[in-house]
Amino acid sequence: MATSQGHFTRLAGTGLAIVLLVGLAACGGPPKWVQNGSGAFNEKDSKAFYGVGAVVGVRNEPLAWDTAENRARAEIAKTFETYTGYLMRDYAASTTAGDFTRNTEEQNVERAIKTVTTATLSGVRPIDRYKDDKTNTYYVLTKLNLEEMKNNLEQAKELNAQVRDFVRKNADKMFDRLEKEEDKRLAR
Q: Is Coiled coil among this UniProt entry's keywords (predicted)?
């Protein structure tokens, strides 16, 4: 009798543990920082920049975590400096030939956009991570303390002119390439 009562107690304990786990999973869901996203927040007298990075559909788990972390770091970097180059070219022609009853029209609209974020940020570190098993999405939260950021900005001022020149040179190359592709297409 003691054996079957011990077995019953063990089963009841296991059942209770399963119910608790299911209940916790149902109440779960993503942490609040996943929903809040990236930005500057003041928590517990500590001002900081937070970046949330995510990746979905990557089966290699270490690669997924690294990708989400890198994306979270990029979110913080985008807060400081983002250069966007934009070019739109619009061409339209209407040609009438012969007896003016035949009209040929031609249009071509092209758009090229390149966004570059370049920043050297020391002190950005991952502080939390979460995996949504339902969607196979990996999330990483990174943080850069405001005081550390101030120190980094002093160092970054020296790099800004170099970054702008690099982006401008490469943007010109991209548009030259676009023009060559356009010429090839028109020659067909």
A: yes
